Amino acid sequence: MRNPNDVFHLAIPARDLDEAFDFYVKKLGCKLARRYDDRITLDFFGDQLVCHLSDRWDREVSMYPRHFGVTFRDKRHFDNLYKLAKERGLPFYRDLSRRFEGLIEEHETFFLIDPSNNLLEFKYYFDDRMMY
């Protein structure tokens, strides 16, 4: 089992590190941990995201099979991130919507798209038993 002090690590391709820095740090509000010529390492909502400079980024955008993001326990945090994304003009792949209405897994979700076509999903379940 994961210790709450451990950090999840995800590495994704980035076509341009300056674009990635602008999107994740300046606009989305992530903290820059390290920067090298070939990657930036970020504090992505408490976990580690590494954007590796690569020419193998997705040219065609598709939610499946690959996207990543955060499921919020606190609705205020979810709402605040959505508001920040709107205010800062972050590019949405899918705007705010509600899925599975009337079912226990009902949740709100939105998708952002970064400059390298990586899709980020943010969601909030109304019943926190559905977090996993």
Summarize the structure.
With 132 residues, the chain is of the alpha/beta class. It has helices at residues 17-27, 75-87, and strands spanning 9-14, 31-35, 39-44, 47-53, 68-72, 92-99, 107-113, 119-125.
Could you please describe the fold and organization of this structure?
The protein is 18% helix and 39% strand. The chain is of the alpha/beta class and 132 residues long. It has a single domain, classed as 2,3-Dihydroxybiphenyl 1,2-Dioxygenase, domain 1 (Roll). The strands form 2 sheets. A 4-stranded mixed sheet has the order 1-4-3-2, with helices on one face. Strands 5-8-7-6 form a 4-stranded mixed sheet, with helices on one face. It is globular, with a radius of gyration of 15 Å. The two termini are 14 Å apart. It holds the Pfam family Glyoxalase. This is VOC domain-containing protein.
